[in-house]
Structure formats: C-alpha cells, structure tokens
Amino acid sequence: PGWSSAPFQQLSGVTQTCATKAVGWDNVAYFCYPFTVDMFYTQEDEGVFPYSLPQWPVLYFEVLSLDFWQRYRVEGYGSLVLPASPGVHMLTIPTWRPVELGTVAEMRRFFIGGSPELEDLTYIRIPSTFKGKRLSRFGFRTETTGSVTFRLYCLQQSKAFLENSALRQHMQSVLDRLGGFSQHSSVYNVLEAFQRARRRMQEAREGLPPDLVNASAPAV
C-alpha cells in the first residue's frame, strides 16, 4: 500500500540459464543478472506518520532447473523485503518447494519433469486474496532446497529531505544576517561608548578652575 512505479517500469523478468559448479558440498550457479527497480512511496495521511510505518516492497523469486532433455523443474521459491536503509546489502534467502506424498511424485519429477507449482507467487508470503487475520498453511507440505544470494544497491531520495535541507539553508542565511547585524551593533556600541566617555571628559574639564585649565593649555 502506498507504493507505485512508472508505467514503463518492468517489475518482472527471467534470468539466463547458468551451469552450476561444485563449491565444497554445494552446487553453485553465478547468474550475475543486474536489474533496476524504481519505486515511489506516497504518504496520503500526514497525521498517521510516524505512528504507522510504511510496508516496504517485497521481491518474489522462483528458481527453475533445466536438464539435458529441456525439461523444467521448480527448485524453489523465496521472497525478500527490500532493505529500508540505503547502501550495499548482501542478503541470502532460503528457498523451498512444494512436494507431494509418495514416491510416485518424485519418480515422475525425475523421469518426466514437472512438479507442483504455485499459481500465485504471493502465496510465498501472504496471498494477495487473503483478507483474514490468521493465515493457516496446515497440510501444505514443503521441503528446503537451497538459497539465493542477492547483492542490492539501495538509493533513497525524499522530498522531505530536500525541504529540510532548504529549511536549514534558510535558517543559516537568517543566522548570517543576524551575525552581520550583531557586528554592526557591536561597532555602534563601541562608538556610542566612546562618545559617552568624550562627553564625560568635556564635563569634567568644564568643572575645573580657569587657572588650572589655562595652565594645562599648550602654548602657541
């Protein structure tokens, strides 16, 4: 809720096939498939934030295998919540796949290919059609199959940040002007103090006897 993207934004895709190689006890495939996604969040009710934080976008993925006879098999499903903080993130997400009871299903998967699949990928987390309060997955059998590692470079830009920056610049300019006024006022205070001291000296000079004033006067 609250998230949108540009109409030309591609929100799904398929990677290339990649051969696996043995790394220790695991078979690892390095896809090296770059993708870019731009998402926009709009806060409708300003009075709600920050008491209710926005739900961050979720990335759903499905792993398939392709054998020598061009037969596809579902190897795992998974999902990850995009990081809420900017920067570089390395996330390893475990995957699972649905299974059927009995050896016949596994033999069919091995010899013929094909396996149980999810019609709706949102079932990996919370189905898009779910409207209740409690989600039960009782009776849904799965098994773990591996993991997928994502390297994410997250960049965030907010209009509120720009407004705060403009406000800080405005406050800084105001402080600069106030600083200039304070400098002018300090110079004015010094001149006014000098004038007061000069008037006091003149008043004190006028209060002295005439002979003392004439004796202290310089000769021309």
UniProtKB/TrEMBL annotation:
<keyword id="KW-0970">Cilium biogenesis/degradation</keyword>
<dbReference type="InterPro" id="IPR010796">
    <property type="entry name" value="C2_B9-type_dom"/>
</dbReference>
<dbReference type="GO" id="GO:0060271">
    <property type="term" value="P:cilium assembly"/>
</dbReference>
<keyword id="KW-0206">Cytoskeleton</keyword>
<keyword id="KW-0963">Cytoplasm</keyword>
<dbReference type="Pfam" id="PF07162">
    <property type="entry name" value="B9-C2"/>
</dbReference>
<dbReference type="GO" id="GO:0036038">
    <property type="term" value="C:MKS complex"/>
</dbReference>
<protein>
    <submittedName>
        <fullName>MKS1 protein</fullName>
    </submittedName>
</protein>
<keyword id="KW-0966">Cell projection</keyword>
